[in-house]
């Protein structure tokens, strides 16, 4: 009643608790638009909502075992135990990262006895996995490769390549790569386009297991590309995110990178250990610049550090310690080679099983590309309307471009998958 | 002929980087390297930006070791975190800074993302401002500020300006000078404020001074960017060190905030940090979040998991959280004790100079007031290493070396 109200009002006025200034109506960000939804995330979210017990998620960009579960490598667990036992401190790494890691990282890519490493003419820094490596590279090119601002990506390329280079200030262009008619490599188309790229432009090459198509050039085709790129005087940027994971063989997957260097291309190279060591969320990668000589490598190193310091100061230690332990401990290294081989093999087996099951279903289409393509991804050749049917009628989730992650295929679901694909393509 | 052609193809010796200059040597690294080369058994390294225990050794917190053991036992996978990081971490990170019951968090009007420690947070913030705060390109730093602030904002495309902060005459805060400069900052400019334990001076405003700054900043309509790298580490008290941040928010400033767990949790090389934007409401926070993710994805896709798991475990496990508060308090206390010991020893040596600022300053660093030539003598004659501006890291001072340090400082200043 009145007296109570008055008392409480007076009490309120007397108290220190006043409504805050209506400053929250001031907004610094009223012009900030909601960004477009992430296409791949959309796939995963729709998958989660689906109640069909037979649903399959083929959008996943991470390896899965034959039960469809994430797989932490045994050599990684052993390395972690070794590291934990040492009770190491958590002092900052150098700006360029853990030395034991960067040395081993370079050797893995280039080969133990590579003359580049022996002569000290590479600089290799630890980075935040493959993305971090590509971005450091893009920023470095933007700052120091001023003769040309264009980066030529294969058509198609990993979606994130475009904003990486664009946000770093480079211009994006493309060269023909994938042939949708054959679901294979458009070799002549690529040579044609590359022959017209202006001198000194940057050309991005996927070292192995092209993402998203799974289509790689054959060695003799790589040789011609290397020749042409040299004639055109282009700066080669290799993206190697799947070394070991593509063919199952570390050296075979690095062949193109090593060949180009042998032929005198002073490349820049991004490496990721997300897939081949299963270190995804630990963010382990490397960025290498192959220089003319050790003196140049020192100059480049100093500038890389100046560039990195105002981005994140120094890289995260944990994943690099794991990778270094594996790469530098013979038993663990051997075990790792076996596990990488195992992962690549399971993928290859799934490709073979999928094609076999499609034939069993009665499909008369040519599915040879499913076996010819390599690595985690497969460009099925499915059209958007077929993809839509596969999702709606069979609860099989993939990106609209018809790309499937073979890692999401298991011996348990490959039969059902073949049923679905056959149903929408017969 | 074949061999000749093959040879010619191989000697394609081409340099893309002939114009790349050797960069200037890092000043602080130079100090550490000179220290390493010195053979004097009494040498002291006061350039170190990391905490040291009283034996001069790196210190991994006990609560961190426990959290690590808990995490290892769970045998978690290594799947990618979300672009914005580990949810258990970002929620706890925001609560730590703003307070558990803060209305900002309750109303969902903050967006907090996990970042690569403090530097990564500042850079994400700088990039975000550069892209979306287009009404003003200037960032005002206190004079002096952490050296890396400048390239962070510059490389992100912002312009750097400064406001008076440190008073070399008093080795303290030039309050009037700061208010004077701030009153002239053009509207909508960004102003950087160190939440506590100003780096490099150790000089912090008092609460009543913070209140006047908050008022003036509001009048000038400035966008506040708080850098909080030392919460808990400055006074030993988590809430006390966050007071300025919370006060500004209470007063209606919609701030942006960088946090680091490098020092207060000793997680240096694990790279754990957070970036927060306090928005008008939850709807705006969603829009801002979507744009932060679009910005982060082409830099590093998603942040490193290990340190965030450790920090989240500590912040979200009551026993560990309590232990952590105690350890942070312990670290801050050791620093404070060293400050007191240094001044006491200087008096014992017979110094008649006013060393009050050594005790008044707070946090890891101390601006001694030594001139470059005095610093040089201290290094040459006593093997005491510090940066030319007279800044010393109190973390490098121990009960074992503080007497010797006082001797040296007195010798070059008497």
List its salient traits.
homodimer; 426 residues; alpha/beta; 7-stranded mixed sheet; two-stranded parallel ribbon; 17 helices; 13 strands; globular; EC 2.6.1.1 (chain A)
Describe the structure in brief.
The structure is a homodimer. Chain A has 426 residues and is α/β, with parallel strands linked by helices. The first copy, chain A, has helices spanning 2-14, 39-49, 74-86, 99-110, 115-118, 129-144, 161-167, 187-194, 219-231, 250-253, 255-262, 294-312, 317-328, 330-361, 368-372, 384-394, 414-425; strands at residues 56-57, 122-127, 150-155, 171-176, 178-179, 184-185, 202-206, 235-240, 268-272, 285-290, 377-379, 396-397, 403-405.
Number of helices of chain A: 17
Order of helices and strands of chain A: HHEHHHEHEHEEEHEHEHHEEHHHHEHEEH
- Percent helix range of chain A: 40-55%
| Low-pLDDT residue spans of chain A | 14-20
- Count of beta strands of chain A: 13
Shape of chain A: globular
Biggest sheet descriptor of chain A: 7 strands, mixed
**How large is the share of residues in beta strands of chain A?**
5-15%
Radius of gyration of chain A: 25 Å
Structure classification of chain A: alpha/beta
Protein name (chain A): Aspartate aminotransferase
Cofactor (chain A): pyridoxal 5'-phosphate
InterPro entries (chain A): Aminotransferase_I/II_large, Asp_trans, NHTrfase_class1_PyrdxlP-BS, PyrdxlP-dep_Trfase, PyrdxlP-dep_Trfase_major, PyrdxlP-dep_Trfase_small
Main location (chain A): mitochondrion
